[in-house]
Specification:
The chain is mainly α. It has seven helices and no strands. The longest helix is centred in the middle third of the chain and has 32 residues. The relative contact order is 0.17.
């Protein structure tokens, strides 16, 4: 049986994370408009400063959404479910979330988190690897948003009903026919 304080914290973390997801959806649209896929060194070097700001915002927002899900929401779900996670690795927490039904695939989320971690450590001697990682997140960013929306659906079992309408970009993403 979950306590009200844990539920309130989970709901708060979902709404805070929704803000990051909403901004990422906006950035996905901006990145799509740049027609970068697949991203190459030539395309990257041809970007204007303004385009690079779009790319930087996209990468930051992608990383923020992964971190919020992994560090805040997973911990809160575990607390509500009364699952001890203090000594668990992030991989173990991800597996737990799959077992509980909060994630459809621990393996997919682990891959997304792994690439995020690699991308956040920008090593210039690995330029080709960084391009591969950036192409990966350009492709997988929509899937990351879908994972977050799935978590909000999972939270309904605790009577947490996420009001998608407060987040215009996320709402358009979830209901494309209404966009």
């Amino acid at each position: 049986m979950e306590n009200n304080n844990s539920l309130t914290i989970l709901e708060s973390k979902i709404y805070a994370t929704a803000s990051a997801a909403d901004r990422l959806v906006y950035s996905i649209g901006r990145i799509s408009n740049l027609e970068l896929t697949p991203l190459t060194r030539e395309k990257l070097s041809a970007l204007t400063d303004s385009d690079m700001e779009v790319m930087d915002a996209f990468i930051y927002r992608y990383g923020s959404l992964v971190a919020n899900i992994q560090d805040a929401i997973f911990k809160s779900i575990a607390e509500v479910e009364q699952e001890p996670t203090a000594t668990m690795s992030n991989r173990d927490k991800t597996n737990l979330m799959e077992r509980l039904g909060a994630l459809p695939s621990a393996q997919v989320f682990s891959s997304i988190a792994h690439i995020r971690n690699k991308l956040m450590h920008d090593y210039t001697e690995e330029a080709n690897k960084q391009l591969e990682r950036m192409n990966f997140i350009i492709i997988e960013s929509s899937h990351l948003v879908e994972i977050f929306l799935g978590i909000t659906t999972y939270a309904e079992k605790f009577d947490i009903h996420f009001a998608l309408g407060y987040f215009s970009h996320l709402s358009s993403f979830a209901n494309p026919s209404r966009a």
